[in-house]
Amino acid sequence: MSYADIDNIIDVKQSIKISMKDRTIRTTITIPAELLAATDRAISQGKAKNRNEFVARSLLHELEALKRAEIDAALSEMAQEPDYQAQVLKMEAEFAAASWEALNLGESPA
Q: How do the domains of the chain map onto residue ranges?
């Protein structure tokens, strides 16, 4: 997986947020009574305006969690690629002097 692939995942996540505000579609769901009661309690406590808002936000939250997991998996996969590892080592070497200088500045008395 490449950085471009991760950017595409992030773009999809952002488009989900945008499209939520654009239009709505009426649907019906079946959920356990306890879950509905907990939802209604959250609404009565001011956590959401109504069931529709609560469910939409909950779905968005879950979709975002799925996307984060997908990005994490992609990054984990990338970290195992030899080309990526070589690139990281090269960047670390290029920044070594600056990192050392910053460390010394942080340790010196002001």
A: 3-79, 81-110
